[in-house]
Structure formats: C-alpha cells, structure tokens
Amino acid sequence: APAPPPARHLFSDPAEVEALRGSLLAWYDKCRRDLPWRTLAATEPDADRRAYAVWVSEIMLQQTQVATVIDYYNRWMQKWPTLQALAQASLEEVNELWSGLGYYSRGKRLQEAARKVVSELAGQMPRTAEDLQKLLPGVGRYTAGAIASISYGQATGVVDGNVIRVLCRLRCIGADSSSPAVIDRLWDMANALVDRSRPGDFNQALMELGAMVCVPKAPLCSECPVKQHCRAQRRVSLGPTVTVMLVFAGVGSCPLCPPATEPWDSSLGVTNFPRKAAKKQPRVARSATCVLERRGCRGALEYLIVQRPSSGLLAGLWEFPSLPLAQGLQEEKQREVLADHLRAWTGQPVAARSLQFIGEVIHIFSHIHQTYVVYSLPLDGDVTLDPALSPSRWVTEEEFHASAVSTAMKKV
C-alpha cells in the first residue's frame, strides 16, 4: 500500500479549516466576477434549469478561457434556454453555434446527454455527483461535482486545474500533480475542505482564487485571502534553511513531496508548486486542401465544402476537400495525389498543373501541429457531385462562415 501523506500536507486542524472557509467565502462574496452562468444559477428558482445553465458553462469552459466562452454561452442560452430545447436541436445546429470554440466533441456529447435526460430520465436531471457522472455522457468527475454542488447543494468538492494549483501551494504538494495517485489525494482534500452550508459558492471561490489570484505565473500573494494558511508562502518567508530543504526533498517515503532530484528553486517562490510531468510534444501532420470555386447562378462565387466523418477529429464539421499527406512528400507529388482526390468530387479529370498553390496554414490542436498546404482550383460550368460520397454542398462566402466549419478552415 502507498505510504500515507504526512500531516503537514493535510487539512487536519478543524479550526484552520473553518478559518480558511470563512476567509475564502468572504473574499468571493466581495470580489467574484460577474459571469452570465453565475447570474443564471443565482436567479433561476428551478433546480434543473439551474443545473442546465451550470452544465453548459462547465462544458464550454473545459480547455477554453472565460473571455472566449461568454459570447458563445450567451448565444447558446438564447437559442436553447432549456435542456428540452437543446434535445430537439440538430447536431448541425449545435456544430454551427460551437464553430470556433474548439474541441467540438464537447457540444456533441452535451446534446447527446440532453437527449438522454429527455428520453430516458423523464426530463429529470440526476441530482448527485455520482449519478451525474454515471448517467450522462461527457460528464466527468469535475463537471458532475460542479453541477451537484452549485445547483443541488451537494457537499462535494471539485478538482480542476485552478484547484490543483491552489491546493498544491496551500499544502506544499510537490509530487507530479498529473499522476493518478496525487489527483486522488487532491480529491480527498477538496471533499474534506468544501463548506457544508455553501458548497457551490465555496467550490466557485476556490476556482476563482486560482483564476484571479493564485495564477500559474506571478501570483498575487499579497492579495490572497488565505495567505496565512499557505505553506508555500510560509516556505518562501523562511528562506532556504536546512530544515526546509530536507522536507522539500522528500526524505523518506512521502507520496506528496517532490523527488529529491528536483530541489527547491528559490527564484520561483510559490510557483515551485505544482509540479507536472514533461508535456508530450504534439505530433506533426500535413494535409493538402483545395478551395474549389465556381460562379453561381446569381453571379456570386461559390465554394465546395464537404462533411467530415461522424467520429474522430472535428467530427461532423465541414471543410474544403482535403487529404492527409505523407511526411517528406515533394510538392509535385502533393499536387498529383490532391488531383486524384479531387477527381472523385468533380466527376472529371483534374490536371495537377491546374492547381494553384496559395500557401500554407498552420493550426495547433491540443495534440497535433497541423499544416494545411492550400491550393485553389476555379471550375468552369456545372459540376455534378456524387451522392455516394460524403455530404457536400456549394456555399457563398457568407454561407461558409455561417456553416459548422472549424477555425482552421476559416484560416484557410
């Protein structure tokens, strides 16, 4: 069995816990940001509608900054103010509204879960974190905890990136914060720390502290409402004494101390915490993309877009005809393979030399460094699209931007 963490890492003093809760909630009441999902959650008397408002915000906020989410959230709630309204929408509509927000599978899973609530759960949201996670696709442990605590008052903690950072600094946790063992300990701490009378506000306060004060770089320690409880701050004030160095080096078998090979860096201060494993480098990929254009019946230029498969990266979104390229492929060969690919769409031979090279577009996905090699091909006359192929259609520039296309294709 793994060794238990020493008491110095835990919230074991009831008086300290109560003081920390009170200080954090008082700060939150005074300093919290005015965000639309908080307003809805605070003013909506129906718990299930409150839960829907929180749920949408939490899914959108995964891997996406608050400033980006606000406009998308407002448009979403205006279009689908209830879970029942979302369940009746089409995936195409969901993808169109989500366009540009990234991580498109989030919107798809959100709609799938809404349909499940309506069709299988009689329109009633699960009311505990355990049931939310078990019954709703796309709802993980964190999202379930957020919905249950904010909407239904369940005294359950939450652990996201902000909470990880705050807890690691408060309790000098220097082991790899992305490891399952450390994450489990952090969940235990969050569940022990959450305020029983105001669990939703407390969880939001903890996340707000990480977003506004206890930030990754240059944290505002002097403004922190719980600095008197922060062991990382205490360590900074003590200086690199022998005792501190021995404790920080993880002498013994403490599972939450950093390894002895990673000593305290006095120049980093509290940002010595948290520690993470080295990030895996994104894989490199290249695709050839062709913007096929024709003059429409009303004289406006139209562009061919085709729909991606229903699973995988950018599932169900629309794009210009594209195909992946092998690494190291010469430019002449790129034209040839793209011309072969385009013959299927146009129903007629395409000469490689007729493809006009436009340039390259780089787009960084979370795990892929993608380069689009962009070509253009004007077409004369009408083109009959093969219905046996993926769905496709001709669109004007205005229609293109209104379609469910990715940010990468907008760059193209």
Q: What does this molecule look like?
A:
The chain is 44% helix and 12% strand. It is α+β, with helices and mostly antiparallel strands and 412 residues long. Strands 1, 2, 3, 4, 5, 6 and 7 form a seven-stranded mixed beta sheet that branches.
In N-to-C order, the SSE pattern is HHHHHHHHHHHHHHEEEEHEEEHH
CATH fold-level topology of the largest domain: Endonuclease III, domain 1
Beta-strand content: 5-15%
- Count of domain modules: 2
CATH homologous superfamily of the largest domain, by name?
Hypothetical protein, domain 2
Q: How helical, in percent, are the residues?
A: 40-55%
Q: Determine the oligomeric state from the structure.
A: single chain
What class do helices, strands and sheet pairing give? Answer: alpha+beta
Question: Number of helical runs?
Answer: 17
